[in-house]
Design goal:
The protein is mainly beta and 253 residues long. It has one domain. Helix content is 6%, strand content 62%.
Length: 253
């Protein structure tokens, strides 16, 4: 069950998860290159309103997503990978360089369990995460940043398990065709850019009790947006529009 301020929306999702999946590898200069991919097709019906830009109140089969990625170890300590995905809510691509204790490029943001399961480099376990916890229309704001990470792990004592940490900073670019920008477009406000600084940290404790992982994440992000909007005194004329906020934050436990 999904809810809006005005009324309840019953969301029915039926689909064939991973209609096609594949994994291949080949060799370049004696280095193995792995290729993975997936494709998903779904049907969605809601009893009120529309969802994710689809005409779901009439039933929609437009929920389609596809992804492919390639990765290889350039050296024993340097891992390079690229990921491309397209879906009803937009297209997303990344390129990541991993070397011991650091990574750079367009990097997935470490935020709770959200990005442990979204756009994995080797499989697509499910088409849609629980929307009450991981809303798809906020995906751009949380999934990745262009910048760098410092990460590592250590064990204070062997009987205490393992602690792992990630500290990151970079720039986030949200889609101007979904989420908040899409909402404002119905009032004539159109963004040319939407994003800003993103930084945060993640700490996890893999306890010595089998299956028990504890953790905390914090993400801070600024929002800078530029575009155009109708002049309130002359609706037929567009004027420059901008907005800014500092350090909106999210905690995950």
């Amino acid at each position: 069950m999904c809810r809006t301020p005005a009324k309840a929306i019953l969301c029915v999702w039926l689909g064939f998860v991973s209609l096609t999946t594949f994994a291949q590898d080949f060799t370049i200069f004696n280095r193995a290159v792995q290729v993975h991919g997936f494709a998903t097709q779904g049907f969605i019906y809601t009893n009120h309103n529309e969802w994710l830009t689809m005409h779901t109140s009439q039933g929609s089969g437009a929920f389609t997503d596809f992804g492919v990625n390639m990765s290889t170890f350039v050296t024993d300590k340097l891992h390079v990978g690229g990921h491309y995905m397209t879906a009803i809510w937009g297209t997303w691509a990344s390129g990541i360089y991993h070397w011991t204790g650091r990574s750079g490029g367009k990097v997935k943001t470490r935020l709770g369990l959200h990005n442990d399961t979204q756009d994995l480099n080797f499989l697509r376990p499910f088409a849609l995460l629980p929307q009450g916890v991981y809303p798809t229309d906020l995906r751009d704001a949380t999934i990745a940043h262009t910048g760098g990470d410092i990460y590592g792990s250590f064990s204070p004592r062997s009987r205490w398990g393992m602690l792992s940490y990630t500290v990151y900073a970079g720039h986030r670019s949200d889609s101007i065709y979904s989420g908040y920008p899409y909402l404002l477009s119905q009032f004539g406000t159109h963004f040319k850019s939407y994003g800003g600084l993103q930084y945060g940290a993640d700490l996890r404790w893999d306890t010595h009790w089998k299956g028990l992982l504890l953790g905390v994440s914090r993400m801070n992000e600024d929002i800078h947006a530029k575009g155009s909007t109708p002049d309130p005194f002359n609706p037929g004329v567009l004027i420059a529009y901008s907005e800014h906020s500092c350090a909106d934050w999210t905690n995950k436990f």
